[in-house]
Amino acid sequence: MATVLPSRPSYCPALLAIFLLPELDRSLTVPIKNSNSFLGLLAGLILLTTGCGGPGHDRTEVTGVLTLDGEPLPAGMHIVFTPADSETPIAFADAGAEGRFQVYGEPGKIGMYPGEFTVSVEVPYADEPGPYSGPPELADIKIPPAYQTGKSKVTFTVPDDGTTFDIAMTSK
User: Fold this and answer.
1) pTM (predicted TM-score)
2) Is 73 a domain residue?
3) Which has the higher per-residue pLDDT, 131 or 26?
4) What is the CATH number of the domain that holds 82?
5) Which residue(s) pair with 171 in the sheet?
6) Is the pLDDT of residue 71 over 80?
7) 3-class DSSP string for the chain
8) What is the pLDDT of residue 15?
């Protein structure tokens, strides 16, 4: 069963400033003659520079299994979910045992935001110059071009209530 996870705090920094600034005004050594104008200007500047809220949706849990030609891939494979919308953060997953993965959008935060994503799969350290320096069990894995970062045409729509998304790659 999918789980909807809480998003970032949805408070507005400008509203916080309105409540906190009267205290700041009292602590200033030089009195401000028109405190209301000052507070309004400061709250407006904070609102313009930071905005209110987040992407508008809660993160949602996405899990799955990564396979190549029907066989689960070993732990360590890296999966990237690149959003079609530039406002939505990129999400990642690292395959564990038996190719199972759980998507995270930010370090330490499970889940990703709903929307349309392009999905790509990477062998860690495979694109670095020189001999392969990653885990030995991944050294001979070749990701088909249709799933490679920068070339992938595989898309996935993340629903609001979470889902399972199995990535079944084929080498042919």
Assistant:
1) 0.66
2) yes
3) 131
4) 2.60.40
5) none
6) yes
7) CCCECCCCCCCCHHHHHHHHHHHHHHHCCCCCCCHHHHHHHHHHHHHHHHCCCCCCCCCECEEEEEEECCEECCCCCEEEEEECCCCCCCEEEECCHHHEEECEEECCEEEECCEEEEEEEECCCCCCCCCCCCCHHHCCCCCCHHHCCCCCCCEEEECCCCEECCEEECCC
8) 37
Q: In this structure, are 40 and 73 located in the same domain?
A: no
Domain that residue 42 falls in? 13-50
> Which two structure tokens, joined as six digits, stand for 82?
């690149």
For residues 94 and 153, membership in a common domain is answered with yes
Domain count, the chain: 2
| Claim to verify: residue 81 and residue 153 sit in the same structural domain | yes
Same domain, 84 and 40: no
Give the tokens for residue 25.
């005004």
